[in-house]
Amino acid sequence: MSAQGKSIWTVVDIIRWGTEYFGAKGVDSPRLTIELLITDVLKCTRLQLYLMHDRPLTEKELSILRETCSRRAKREPLQYILGKAHFYGLEFDISPAVLIPRPETETLIDTVLKYCESIPDPLHIIDIGTGSGCIAITLAHHLQHRTNTVIQAVDVSTEALEIAKKNAQTHKVNIIFEHADLFQREHPLQGIVVSNPPYISIGEYAQLEPELTYEPKVALTDNADGLAFYKKISDLIGYSDSSVHAFFLELGYGQMEDVENFFAPLSQSLNKVHDLSGIERVLWGEVNTAL
Predict the structure, then answer these.
(1) Which residues of 119-131 are buried (b: 16+ CB within 10 A; e: fewer)?
(2) What does pTM read for this prediction?
(3) Domain 98-286 fold
(4) What is the pLDDT of residues 129-157, one digit of tens each?
């Protein structure tokens, strides 16, 4: 897309160029990537894009597109460039201050919602490490029909909480946000604990794909073996003054056995849920009433 090249660039020209360009840069789904970047510049849908293949781009539009293409070629995640991500049918504002919502986390949502169908009101849910708020907000959105439902969202990052609050306003749901460090939190947990904690070990973090280096490190790794947050959550639930009824945790690949060991003393029946790729992704259980 050089200024010294073609004088007129149409939508179809850009799509052809971008598909080849991103493919050479090792970017996943190069055609989809360039199409989404064009729709963002032209403020249209992908369907509308197909109906305007011969539309020439203005110099201002080309300038914006050059910048966003350059950012994506450096492997900055597309979601950060667009400033939004889709999760469980909802759209969320995001920035490099929060983790990008991922499809595998939808397995966690499915599991929690199914459990909530089996228990009466009231509901009290606490989302630990809320980030963009995608888990807490999605649960609140789908549980709006329930009376006396309270959803808390905790995060150590004030920047993340600001984004989560904005997303809650967008989706018109009531969330109690709390700025707190899980490892220094004084108040006992209660109700249903839900968390997708940082579970990448520091060794694995050093080998991540380039895109992941743009995401907040604190949301990806515990700077240890990837198990520190599970141990802390199990300790909090096990406190004598804790009144947790159930817990739902997202896990990384191959972590199930280790995490089970933390939570086995807390529940008579631990349940494993596989994601769409067949990976053991969610561990959940009801807490022993004797605790």
Answers:
(1) eeeebbbbbbbbb
(2) 0.92
(3) Rossmann fold (3.40.50)
(4) 999 999 999 999 999 999 889 999 999 99
